Amino acid sequence: MRLMGVGRRYGAGGPWVLRDIDFEVPAGTLLRIEGANGSGKSTLLRLLAGIDAPSAGRIVDRPRTAYVPERFPAALPFTALGWLTHMGRIHGLGRAAAAAAGRDWLERFGAGGHARTPLAELSKGTSQKVAVAQGLLGAPGLLVLDEAWTGLDRASRALLDDAVRDRVAAGASVVFVDHDPRRLAGAAGAGYRVEAGRLTRVPVPADAPAGPRVRIEAQAPPGGAHLPPDLPGDPHRESLPGAVRLTVAAAHSDALLRSLLTARPPWHIRAVTALDPRTPGEDPRP
């Protein structure tokens, strides 16, 4: 998905919240968005999700998208399961499949006992579990999370972390904002900051505990070629004669391989090696 010269303001004469945003969201990537309160982070996420339309520029190639806001609009005439079934149908699932997926996610988040509870009667935490479940049940190609962890208990936050990693590994894109600077540290492929209406790339925090890594050796196409831009996982790069060695977190290895193999022209994969961070002499975070 690409944003080309995108701007957003509220009202014909209102100030520009965002201006001249050129931004690409590659498949199979996890992108973190940061910025001060009121900087336009939520506006950007709503544009990505298709909730709002740009005032200038255009957005192209948006995949099927799910959006999870910080505050779930609980005043809706549905039960928890009824809402998830309804949203599952919107995502293209049949009624039975949507209901089954809704029940499954409610159980995973420990909210199965609230399946028949009206949304307006749910606690903040349980409402947020329902909001997150609707974002996950249709396996979207783009998942947009605007402080979706807010209000969740510790186990549910960890479950959402794992679900995000699973979506990225499956080739989907996830864009998120969260107040915790360590959220998904080491997993995000790139970070961006919204400031003064502009979007700039910033470093993402490294993972605290060293996790499993994968080393990929890829041979350049005949005649040579540049690596695809914004490789998933922001891998460490080492140049080899006619090739490159990339080291990346294991969670991003499938997406990185897919990016290399589907490049035009494609790269030839010579070797894929799993690195154990406990192995002496291996630097798990080059």
Automatic annotation (TrEMBL):
This is ATP-binding cassette domain-containing protein. It holds the Pfam family ABC_tran. Residues 1-221 form the ABC transporter domain. One of its GO terms (molecular function) is ATP binding. Keywords: ATP-binding, Nucleotide-binding, Transport. Signal peptide: none annotated. The keyword NADP does not apply. PROSITE patterns: ABC_TRANSPORTER_2. Residues 218-237 are annotated as: Disordered.
